[in-house]
Amino acid sequence: MRIYLIGFMGSGKSSVGKLLADRLGYRFIDTDLEIEKDTGLKIRDIFKIYGEDYFRDLEKKKIKELSSLDNVVIATGGGLPANKENLKVMKDTGKVVWLNIDFNTFLDRVSGDENRPLLKEDIDKLKIRFEDRKKFYSQANIKVSNDNSVSIEEVVERIIKELKE
């Protein structure tokens, strides 16, 4: 089985993904880290040198490659599911889990993180991007709230329960 974690920056995909993979006895994979390994560049440097479109092409290739693996929890970049083709690949090959947070939780978690290129955007543009991506995220098989009122353990337990149903 493949479990894809989607959600905006700071939604906890990596933190939840590692614990979920551990509980299920699966391997954890982060698409951003895989792209960094493949290119030898940090995501922020890929954006700076080649631009966002180039990065999105790398994401598309990576998710297709990873979709053939078994027993994995895959944390995706926040923009990866905003491509319909990527979303289709994930839905066709596994379960897609949306870690939903509100905009204030996002701001709390990522403020000051220089490794996130999109944080250089104006706050109003970020808010628009945040809202726009919900239409893609909402197509997930499972939706779990991961705001600051729940622990990572609670989120993982909810996901496991939903996967069993």
Describe, in plain words, how this protein is organized in 3D:
The protein is an alpha/beta fold and 165 residues long. It has a single domain (2-164), classed as Rossmann fold, CATH 3.40.50.300. It has helices at 13-24, 31-39, 43-50, 52-66, 84-93, 103-110, 123-137, 152-164; strands spanning 2-6, 27-30, 72-75, 95-100, 142-145. Strands 2-3-1-4-5 form a five-stranded parallel β-sheet, sandwiched between helices. The chain is globular, with a radius of gyration of 15 Å. The model has no long low-confidence stretch (mean pLDDT 92).
Helical residue percent band: 40-55%
What is the CATH architecture annotation? 3-Layer(aba) Sandwich
Global Rg: 15 Å
For the record, the CATH class is Alpha Beta
- Mean pLDDT comes to 92
Give the N-terminus to C-terminus distance in angstroms: 15 Å
Largest sheet: 5 strands, parallel
Report the CATH superfamily: P-loop containing nucleotide triphosphate hydrolases
Tell me, what's the shape?
globular
Order of helices and strands: EHEHHHEHEHHEH
Strand order of the largest sheet: 2-3-1-4-5
The CATH topology assignment is: Rossmann fold
Q: What's the number of extended β-strand segments?
A: 5
